[in-house]
Amino acid sequence: MSAVTDSPLAIEVRGLVKRYSSKAAGEKIAVAGIDLDVRLGEIFALLGPNGAGKTTTVEILEGYRNRDGGSVKVLGSDPGNLGAGAANWRDRIGIVLQSTKDAEDLSVAEVVHHFANYYTNAKDADQVIEAVGLTEKASERIETLSGGQRRRLDVALGIIGNPEILFLDEPTTGFDPEARRAFWELIRNLRTQGTTILLTTHYLDEAEALADRVGVIVDGKIIEVSTPSNLGGRNNAKARISWLENGVRAELLTDNPTKEISVIAQRFTGEIPELAVHRPTLEDIYLEMIGGK
Amino acid sequence: MSKIIRVGFLRGGLEIKQFMRQRESVVFTLLFPVLLLFIFGSVFKGEVAPGVTFSQYFLAGMIASGLVNTGFQQLAIMIPIERDFGTLKRLRGTPISPISYFIGKMIMVFTSMIVQIAALLLFGVLLFGLNLPTTVDKWLKFTWLVLLGSICSAILGIAFSAVPKNGRGASAVVSPIVIILQFFSGVFFVFSTLPKWMQDFAALFPLKWLTQGMRSVFLPDGFASQEVAHSWETPRTAAILIIWLVAGILISLRTFKWSEK
What we know:
Largest sheet of chain B: 2 strands, antiparallel
Distance between the termini of chain A: 20 Å
Number of strands of chain B: 2
Low-confidence stretches of chain B: none
Largest sheet of chain A: 6 strands, mixed
Number of domains of chain B: 1
Shape of chain A: globular
Order of helices and strands of chain B: HHEEHHHHHHHH
Structural class of chain A: alpha/beta
Oligomer: heterodimer
Radius of gyration of chain A: 23 Å
Number of helices of chain B: 10
Strand order of the largest sheet of chain B: 1-2
Strand content of chain B: under 5%
Order of helices and strands of chain A: EEEHEHEHHHEHEHEEEEHEH
Mean pLDDT of chain A: 87
Structural class of chain B: mainly alpha
Number of strands of chain A: 12
Strand content of chain A: 25-35%
Mean pLDDT of chain B: 89
Low-confidence stretches of chain A: 1-5
């Protein structure tokens, strides 16, 4: 983990372990010793394939599940042992769960206004509805909302209490591209207001677009924590040069592509045939990371 | 504490709103009992004792059933559905107290129950000329039976909500229990004519005592001699309801689940 710890921690996880046992599959380790620091005010993305342990980890942090080992602190409290402080702690966090279908017979405004009553520092309900772009739908029944609108309502209910930390579990699964862009804008706006955000996603572009830092989680372990631009050593990954020489495809991996190309160029008069310089995309690196494990 | 109660009442308002917007639940809860009263009242014209029509006997049983339908049956089916739909999980992620949630449920149960009983009494009087109690004593007894019965029924519904594995199957698990108890407890048949083993079995559960209690309100005092025990057994009725209430609270505290996992 990087040495940058200039702002205090919102989430601190050490050696987190969670096992599930079922009659059919025996014991399965869902989370196999995770360390995680999320600083106040940052957007942290837990990135990984389905079944990697993202949701289990987040649900432990949210206080929904017990853990089998390790220590967890969220806003200074242990979500697995909140005791009498539970209501106060929940007053300070916001949770956007994976798909829900509750309250279908109520309107957007009714539900958001109602949930505002649960919190001591609730935001103005109409402003929250505005912020998630549902003002036009405010008086409509929830059953009439599209998937994307439904998700925006989930976010509205997640932020109505003016949380210090917002948990978002796979917020844009099933969105069309336009809805995802709009949703990302909404999340960025929350960050500018100082909300710490922990989101899980299996979309690489989502992590890249939103996160200050990304933790890649595979088989219950975090295999790397980095900024999106440095993930997998992408910033100093070798470039791949390929060209055609004597009818054969030649390839070269190098840290200095410009120098290498000038050397190769001396062997040709004019253009190097079929010259290509390729740097790995984030996706190449990510697929290599999750595939290699 | 005041916040817990205030939020509980707000939830109650929201639950009533949701209830009223679900047409099936309104029809099932409000019209179905009236329809049953109409059918049974039309088919069975006779008297179960001199001056006591079957309709009058049946009315008492249907009101007692109403307490079980709107409390036990409604909650034991609705809570597993809310668990499936994520309602409970979402609530658990907020600062709301479970007590507020239960207050909301109680308010909803109580409202639908009052409306159901009012509909039964109204139709009973208008269509079949049924007799309402005429003494203050009987109305007082009616009041405490309704209060104790509905709270007991609702708490047992919450306790039982841990049994159905999911929302889809809840109705199939809960409804037969209620229907069998209705047959065994003297709702559809005159209780004293049932086989003894059925009477003994029914006596273990609250519905039998609620129907008997309602008969003591809606039937002439003299009918007490026609009961199996030759008495209304009022103190025993109260005691058994209180025992079930306490058991329901203890079970709910141990088994209530916010989520399916």
